[in-house]
UniProtKB/TrEMBL annotation:
Protein name: ABC transporter permease
Major location category of this protein: membrane
Transmembrane segments: 21-42, 143-167, 188-214, 226-253, 265-284, 320-342
Keywords for this protein: Membrane, Transmembrane, Transmembrane helix
Classification via Pfam families: ABC2_membrane_3
GO molecular function: ABC-type transporter activity
């Protein structure tokens, strides 16, 4: 075990200082921060500025009224950017270009309520009662959709790094020197553990950047309860998914001796990961659909689908436990099979080794 950790430490020290890792870390954080600010930019300003000619309406939430002496002064304020719209004599709205839809609705509602109140008619508003989690439904869907992209990017990125590292050591014959000092399973496991640690660092940066951006934009107040559980679950499912796919990547990578052959030999793995991503994306929108519920239990789909379902809606603990148990069994099986393939193929250079031959 100490030797395996030494190999893992070597992988971490070698990769963490590379320009590609630092750039990917920065890009991941910037993308998450950018996505957190998108709703704020699309939702329009927090407070609209409305120039008023004539009687000033009663206070309206999200609207600041500023009186002007005449229509010409109000239009000048519009042209100068000092107002988003102008309300003229409580009979018409003037705007530069297309009127913001949300602002138009707010002014229409305020005008209607003022007319009803002046007529002496009293209307009791309807009481709206929703489920406990209904107010968080849209936020949960957004978090789940973002989670799909983050998990897919980190899993495929980390697994590809494992495969490229195996081929690099094999083509340069460094693996022969390393195997003179360590056993194949130690080199195999150390590479997976080391690069997995870097993947966890990347995931931690992404989560930290996302929470910081949510706090800066005020979205943190809209986050659903149980976010701590969602974050912890995401990390644990990432570890399981990474262990599964990185074992496949290391095994497939050991079959070839050149980087040019890597893409073709990894096609089965990347196809499986793409299918998992598509199902997980569907689960973010329809978390209680039959397809999402079934495949959130079936490995390796569960590595992405279950955390996405858990973020999008409440999932029974029994389903999560069953899914995690089956995924652990699948990970152990793939690690054992991958180590066997790696042991039998990593020292064979030249022509591509057939998978069936390595397994036999």
């Amino acid at each position: 075990m100490n030797t395996l950790l030494l190999v893992a430490g070597r992988e971490i020290r070698t990769r963490i200082r590379t320009r590609s890792f630092i750039i990917s870390l920065a890009v991941s954080a910037l993308l998450v921060v950018g996505l957190a600010f998108v709703p704020k930019f699309l939702s329009g300003p927090d407070t609209y500025k409305v120039a008023v000619v004539g009687p000033t309406p009663a206070a309206v939430e999200n609207i600041a009224f500023t009186p002007y002496p005449d229509e010409a002064a109000a239009r000048a304020a519009l042209a100068g950017g000092d107002a988003d719209a102008a309300l003229i004599d409580d009979r018409k709205i003037v705007s530069e270009g297309e009127l913001d839809q949300r602002l138009g609705l707010l002014l229409e509602n305020a005008h209607r309520e003022a007319k009803i109140k002046s007529s002496g008619l009293v209307i009791t508003p309807l009481q709206v009662e929703t489920g406990a989690d209904a107010q968080y439904e849209g936020v949960r869907t957004g978090i789940a959709t973002l989670l799909v992209m983050v998990l897919f990017f980190l899993l495929i990125y980390s697994a590809m790094y494992v495969a490229m590292g195996v081929v690099e050591e094999k083509s340069s014959r460094i693996v022969e020197i390393l195997l003179a000092a360590v056993r194949p399973w130690q080199l195999f496991g150390g590479k997976i553990v080391g690069l997995g640690t870097l993947g966890l660092i990347n995931l931690g940066v992404v989560i930290g950047a996302g929470l910081a951006a949510a706090s800066a934009t005020g979205l943190v107040a809209d986050l659903p309860p149980g976010m701590t559980g969602i974050v912890i679950g995401t990390v644990l499912w990432f570890v399981l998914g990474y262990a599964f796919f990185s074992a496949l990547a290391a095994a497939f990578g050991s079959l070839v001796s050149r980087q040019e052959e890597l893409n073709s030999v990894l096609t089965p793995m990347t196809t499986l990961m793409t299918l998992t991503y598509l199902v997980a994306y569907f689960a973010a929108v329809e978390p209680m659909g039959t397809l999402a519920r079934v495949l959130s239990i079936v490995p390796p789909f569960s590595s992405m689908v279950m955390p996405v379902r858990s973020a999008a809606t409440e999932v029974p603990v029994a389903e999560i436990a069953l899914s995690a148990g089956l995924m652990v069994v699948a990970v152990v099986a793939v690690l054992l099979a991958g180590a066997r393939v790696y042991n039998r193929a990593v020292l064979r250079t030249g022509a591509r080794v057939k998978l069936a031959e390595a397994l036999r």
